[in-house]
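Z., the sequence and structure:
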Amino acid sequence: MTLRTIRKNYLFALSLVVYLATLLMLLSELDRQYYQVEKEPLIKHSFRALFPDDTLRLQQVSGQILVQHEAEGIVDARLATEWREIVQSMLDGEGCVFQIRIVSKDAEEILVQRDDVKFRRLNGFANTLFYRNFRREASNEIVGSPGGPRRGLLSFHYTTPSQYEPIVALTNRYRLWALLIFAAITACYGAVVRHLILPTKRVVSRIDAVASAPPKIMPRPSSLLEKAYNNLARDAILLRVGQAIRSLSAENPTFDQSAVLARVPDLLIELLDYRAVLVFDLSPDKAGHVLVSGCAEANDGSASQDHRDHSLDHVLTPDTLKELGDAGRVVSGEYVVCEISGPDERPHRTCLAVLRPDACPPTL
């Protein structure tokens, strides 16, 4: 990939990165800062219904383990085995708890039992937005004896419950918000690309090409930047045409005006992307008919149609001549017509007709 190619496309690539980063950041914040925050109280308020297991025996065994650990610094293997069996039966159930642990009052983790498969299974498509890592913790204080000091905590780590209707409804509602955010950000990015990025790329390409060829007019400028470029390119092209005509007059001082104008089509077809350029010497009669006393033509060779007859039939009508007298320039279908003779040359008139590059070739 050349440096010029990179320079032409870096703005589009940079805008695409900004668009994706903005979209991902907004969707991520929607999930973490809004969706998960709203989901948490729905689970907390129904925790006992979502985790119906009786924890009395588990709390008793956990209290014995904490007392023993505080006194001896170890855990009896029989108690540890019983605790793990009780916990595993709870994790195997339909509740949303996927991890249970005992923590001493010094925040030391003594025993822990975890089911990662259950955690992944519960966080499915129906009850998650984007992130599938929702987890929260609920803890019970453990005392050695009724009214005694706190020995530690029995912590229950829970995630999103499966097939819980309030969570499913919340997820669907936030999916709609995510879709609206995606549509809004994409529409804004599309507008920026259409009205700023692509016009800039096209203008830069045209400017790069000026180093080796005359500037080219954009056939359908759609932005202010492209229209501004066309104005500059038009002025540069007209300057070249004027210089070429002056050179012809200087090199051939015996040429009359019609001879010089006859060279104009070749000059314009070389400098502009027109399909055809025609210069007409016209003499309207008293009845309003258009008499052609001379015609010079040049075309790009892409079509074999008779541009002269086509333009006379569809452009150079008495109404067109009337409009030329008022405005000096007429756009008629595929052609742009302008008068290049002065009022003192009337009734003879010299008109320039160009077939626009964005027009379809004429059909006979």
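The longest strand covers residues 290-299. Strands lie at 97-104, 109-114, 136-143, 150-158, 276-284, 290-299, 329-332, 335-339, 349-355.

Let me know what you think.
H.
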